[in-house]
Amino acid sequence: MIHPLFKWFGSKWSASKRGNYPAPEGDIYEPFAGGAGYSLCHHERKIFLWDTDAHLRVLWPWLINEAKTSDILDIPINVPIGTDIRSLGLNHGQAVLLKSWQRTNSCGDCWTISKWGHLSGQWTANTRARVAHEVHAIKHWEFTDNITDEWEGTRFVDPPYQYNYQYRSSPIDYDRLASDVTRWAKVGKVIVVEAEGQSGELPRWLPFSYSHEQVTSRRKTKNHHHSRELIWTSLSLVDA
Fold first, then answer.
1. Whole-Å CA distances, 201 to 136, 161, 168, 228
2. Are residues 85 and 132 in the same domain?
3. Both 89 and 172 in a single domain?
4. Which of 33, 40, 140, 147 has a CA 20 to 30 Å removed from the CA of 158?
5. String of DSSP letters for 127-187
6. Residue 30 DSSP one-character state
7. pLDDT over 70 for what percent of the chain?
8. Could you tell me the residue range of the domain that residue 118 belongs to?
9. Can you list the alpha helix ranges (DSSP code H) found in 28-108?
């Protein structure tokens, strides 16, 4: 297991580390990659990622195919708050990586250093050193959409949740996705995650079951926001 290489909303790293999701069989494919938290917990396997987010389509290929230890260590720390990251003379991959450590909602278009960006757990000397070391553990991964229906590995499907904020993602056809999932489940293991809406709405595009509760944002005086996470797996077809 390695740690997150950048911050991304909806991370499944902590839940995967705690064993809230079934272990994979064979290689892993994450068609809604995000920060690939599930794959990071099984990083030694062959991993295939895909995502439509423009920043991820730069960041993952750069981390997998180009980023060297020196590239990570050359990204500055303690940059003054409000600095435009694009003014620092970094290459695009470096800039997107630094951007991703400023805010959890890093899919937006804000490129300035935040007031939280240099705090513990953000872009610090320790974080930079760790990422520079652990990035070598993903060099055998691929960022690709070239996965056929006959692919027999494990698909970890973590789409934008139907009833929660979708961070400017393209509209999801959940009925079509349910059909894809059912088809994929005939040849390999499939794990699909979702969550109740903030007002208790239940996604019904698959027969989800309760998985666990997790903190989605932390507030002062322990007034944290929680999410009731849901799960569907291909084992559900066997049990039906």
1. 41, 11, 20, 11
2. yes
3. no
4. 140
5. HHHHHHHHGGGGTT-EE-----TT--SEEEE-PPPTTS--TTPPPP-HHHHHHHHHHHTTT
6. E
7. 90
8. 59-138
9. 37-40, 56-65, 69-73, 92-100
Examine the domain organization and report whether 33 and 87 are in the same domain.
no
Are 172 and 220 in a shared domain? yes
Q: What is the identity of the amino acid at 19?
A: G
- Which tokens sit at 82? 């409000």
Provide the whole-model pTM. Answer: 0.91
Query: Kind of pairing, strands 142-143 and 47-49?
Result: parallel
Count the neighbouring beta carbons within 10 Å of the beta carbon of residue 206.
Answer: 20
219 lies in a domain? yes
- Measured CA to CA, the distance from residue 240 to residue 238 in angstroms comes to 6
H-run or E-run covering 233: strand 225-233
Q: How many domains does the chain have?
A: 2
The identity of residue 170, as a single letter, is S
- Ramachandran bin of 124, using left for φ above 0, alpha for ψ from -120 to 50, beta for the remaining angles: beta
By C-alpha distance, which of 171, 231, 172 is closest to 196? 231
